[in-house]
Amino acid sequence: MGKMKRYSGFRLLIVDDNRHNLYTLKSLIHRHMDVEVLEADSGQKALDIALSESGIDLIILDVQMPEMDGFQTASMLKIRKKTRDIPIIFLTAAYKTQEFQQKGYDVG
Hints:
41% of the residues lie in helices and 18% in strands. It is an alpha/beta fold. A 4-stranded parallel sheet has the order 2-1-3-4, with helices on both faces. α3 links the parallel β3 and β4 (88-91). α2 (43-52) runs parallel beside α3. It is globular.
């Protein structure tokens, strides 16, 4: 039986509707950081994980997702006591920097 990987205790939730992006981001993170990575492929799954898991230290959140986009997901996280203090980094491939920056700040 293989040894279970031990992490530094830092827990990171990555959210993207594209499975390839999730895999790439997770691989990149594991190459450079000793953290536990949780994954969600939708805003709703991100909410479910964030509300059911404890000790999430950071969320990396894709802005452009169907159904519930990153800003809507962040708004839902910010109104809940359990998740409102988790820092969020917005990630996007779209080049709408000023608009997205302002929306990100508006969400909190």
